[in-house]
Amino acid sequence: MNYPFGFYSFGKNIGIKDDSLDFAVIYSQKICKAAAVFTKNNYPGSPVIVGREHIRTGKLQAIVINSKNSNVATGERGINDARNTCKALANSLGISPELILPSSTGVIGVPLPVDKILKACSEAKENLKEGNLEEVARAILTTDTKSKISFREIEFNGKRGVIYGMAKGAGMIEPNMATMLSYILSDWDVDQDLYSELKFCVDETFNCLSIDSDTSTSDTVVLMASGEAGILPSQIFRKALYEICLDLTKQIAMDGEGATKLIIVKVENAKNETQAIKIGKSILNSPLVKTAIYGGDPNWGRLVMAIGKVFDEPIPYENLQIHFGDLSVKDASTEQKILLSKYLKENTEINLKVNLGMGTSKKEFYGCDFTEGYIKENAYYTT
Amino acid sequence: MNYPFGFYSFGKNIGIKDDSLDFAVIYSQKICKAAAVFTKNNYPGSPVIVGREHIRTGKLQAIVINSKNSNVATGERGINDARNTCKALANSLGISPELILPSSTGVIGVPLPVDKILKACSEAKENLKEGNLEEVARAILTTDTKSKISFREIEFNGKRGVIYGMAKGAGMIEPNMATMLSYILSDWDVDQDLYSELKFCVDETFNCLSIDSDTSTSDTVVLMASGEAGILPSQIFRKALYEICLDLTKQIAMDGEGATKLIIVKVENAKNETQAIKIGKSILNSPLVKTAIYGGDPNWGRLVMAIGKVFDEPIPYENLQIHFGDLSVKDASTEQKILLSKYLKENTEINLKVNLGMGTSKKEFYGCDFTEGYIKENAYYTT
Q: Mind telling me how many Å the CA of A304 is from chain B's nearest CA?
């Protein structure tokens, strides 16, 4: 596995809830240019509040993350815990606390076991290993079943660098202008504004994702670019960054709580992007569409319903074309329904294409089916 | 059981899908004043399209209903089927087709087996029995497990009359300015505009209901008032009508697909009704709130998340008060969480009270928990 040069990290267990990895640090030997997008939830977690302050300078040198407890809805105490975490790590690394982005994920409303975290921070320096980022990708997981990693090696002007991304997230996911936790690290820099590059890619990927229509209070995507390998033209940097974000988005959708199928909804020929988003999200979030796909039932009437319940975007019925894969579903005959059911049952990636016949705008959305596993996971995910 | 005077009805099986009751007629010997509200889904069913035409005169004398097939997304053929159904019944009853409201519920996108329906219409007159409305309430069911009936006997100025309501609905239910199928019949009339009386009651009851956030293409509430018993002042008529609508709403929520618990969300001290609706619906439709209640998990952080994801209605966290029953949940201690879990586990009616501390507006919302039963019902409810 190829890491960006100059990044050190570790993940370990510090006993926040059980004996799985629950704490991680990422450190860059060089101060990085950095950009981040955060949740729009009106009750952001304490780390998001502190992280917004620290990213203001456009510089970061480290990220400190714990899983199993999100430090959300914990008031002043929570904010102090996030600040003290940064301070303790800054001491250990010999850098300024403002160069550290704190990040937490897990249960909401429970104070952080801060003593365990401060102790882990104070010992951070000695635990750091060069690269080692898969360990971090494992340490940030909660209800995820798999690590989510995507990277691109890029050669340009005789130099070689890497953009390396990881993410977690399986439930409470409809990012809405931000996303769950994702850390993207690079030894390349870009010849354009870093935030604009990140925002563009996030809007086309993570922001088109929904597992369950619920927007987390902890969503964070952060990009750190050290520039050790040099500076890339935007078209090269952005292409790789977009591919990584898209890859992570699909990995999250595929690993949604209880999911058995990745659903990709392509809305085409929309009047504009707003219309595409409203219709795409309505389909992606309809429990009746999601359960039909789980059951291999070509119940296309539910798709019509989901499009029709976007009251302020009426689409003439005759304009509508709907496909599962290459198969047309509207007014499907009995024979066609057998093929459609086969398509749903035999694939783990389900492509729904909805042509609105209204204009030229198009957009893709990413989600998963809805199964008994989601219910079990969330009925008994205890506080 | 007490029926309004002068109404005749029957329910029977005509073999649309299986051998359960699937066809019903309601007939009033007198032409009634009538009002109806319908789904706002942009793809209303054919019966809704024809019903909107027929109700325009404010008069109805009969309703013809089938379950197991909704006659939605069936094009011109579907509309003709609905018109021909009304004509066949009109012939049998010796009345005008425009005095008949057609209504269908069931699978979307499959043409109606119209021959069976026309035959049943032609034999309708001989099947009618006085009252007999429980049979209709049974015949309109789809995935419901129970008939839903509510009525009030009213004495006024020495006369006696009845308002009698029935409803069906268990899935694809977030009515949004209309509702699933409900028929309300009375031998009383009211001294105000019938539509206004109905709309007021629907907005406070059926429109505050959500089973699964999906808005059906067939939603219809119709009220027929014969006036045989005389005319009631609005305050008496509306009170009874409201109580019936509320009762039916709760019966639907309690019988939601897979549901084990009725959830009542009371939003208090909102800035205005719009804010109350946005916050109330966000809580009521959050899969994570619904699964936590199913699991008896006092995971109040999910309530905070659901309030916070209404991005355009930020509520200062310190303003928020949240109760399950009489128990405060925000920042609950371990002991308090044990009591909260007990409350969730031991009750089938769960009252959530959310005080926003923003103003004086308040509103109640009705839904149910989210269980494996919902998934099973809808993954394999075959087309």
A: 7
Residues B380, A295: C-beta atoms closer than 8 Å? yes
CA distance A260 to chain B (A): 13
User: B215: nearest CA in chain A?
Assistant: A309
In chain A, which residue's Cα lies nearest the Cα of B371?
A: A375
For residue B295, give the nearest of A286, A371, A380 by CB distance. Answer: A380
Signed CA dihedral, B367, B373, B374, B375: sign only: positive
Q: Give me the active site residues of B, please.
A: 179
Which residue type does B103 have? S
User: Is B16 in contact with B113 (CB distance < 8 Å)?
Assistant: yes
Interface contact flag, A305 B214, Cβ < 8 Å: yes
ipTM for the assembly: 0.84
> Any residues with CB less than 8 A from the CB of B211 and at least 6 apart, and which?
B169, B170, B171, B172, B173, B174, B252, B253, B256, B257, B259, B367, B368
Shortest distance, CA A33 to any CA of chain B (angstroms): 29
Q: Which residues contact B139 (CB under 8 A, 6 or more apart)?
A: B11, B12, B21, B22, B23, B24, B65, B67
Phi, psi angles (nearest 5°) of residue A341? -65, -40
Pairing type for strands B7-12 and A361-368 reads: unpaired
Which residue is listed with tokens 């229509």? A213
B210 neighbors B285 (Cβ within 8 angstroms): yes
Return the residue of A nearest to B173 by Cα: A288
What distance separates the 2 farthest-apart alpha carbons in chain A? Answer: 70
H/E stretch holding B62 reads strand B59-66
Q: Compare all CA atoms of chain A with the CA of B176 and give the residue at the minimum distance.
A: A309
Spatial contact of B44 and A309, defined as CB atoms under 8 Å apart: no
* Residue B170 region by backbone torsions, left for phi larger than 0, else alpha for psi between -120 and 50, else beta: alpha
With 90 as the cut, is the pLDDT of residue B217 above it? no
Please, which pLDDT band fits residue B107 given cuts at 50, 70 and 90? Answer: confident
CB contact under 8 A, A42 and B308: yes
The alpha-carbon radius of gyration of chain B (Å, integer) is 22
Tokens 């977009």 map to which residue? A242
Q: Best of B38, B40, B41 to disrupt the A interface by mutation (most A CBs within 10 Å)? A: B41
Beta strands in chain A (DSSP E): 7-12, 23-38, 59-66, 100-104, 129-130, 148-156, 159-167, 181-190, 220-232, 262-270, 321-324, 327-328, 349-355, 361-368
Rounded to whole angstroms, the Cα distance separating A26 from A132 reads 9
* SS3 call for B163: strand
Reported as a single tens digit per residue, the pLDDT across A53-93 is: 999 999 999 999 999 999 998 999 999 999 999 999 999 99
All structural domains of chain A: 7-254 (3.60.70.12), 262-379 (3.10.20.340)
- HSE-CB of B377 using CA atoms within 13 angstroms: 20
The region, left, alpha or beta by phi > 0 then psi within -120 to 50, assigned to residue B325 is left
Among candidate residues B148, B246, A291, B54, the one with its CA nearest the CA of residue A305: A291
Using the Cα atoms of residue B372, residue A309, residue B179 and residue B102 in order, give the sign of their dihedral: negative
Q: CA B338, CA B252: separation in Å to the nearest integer?
A: 30
Contact at CB, B217 and A172, closer than 8 angstroms: no
pLDDT digit string, tens, across residues B21-38? 999 999 999 999 999 999
Q: Which residue from A213, A330, A383 is facing B297, i.e. has the nearest CB?
A: A383
Q: What is the pLDDT of residue A177?
A: 61
User: How close does chain A come to B336, measured CA to CA in Å?
Assistant: 12
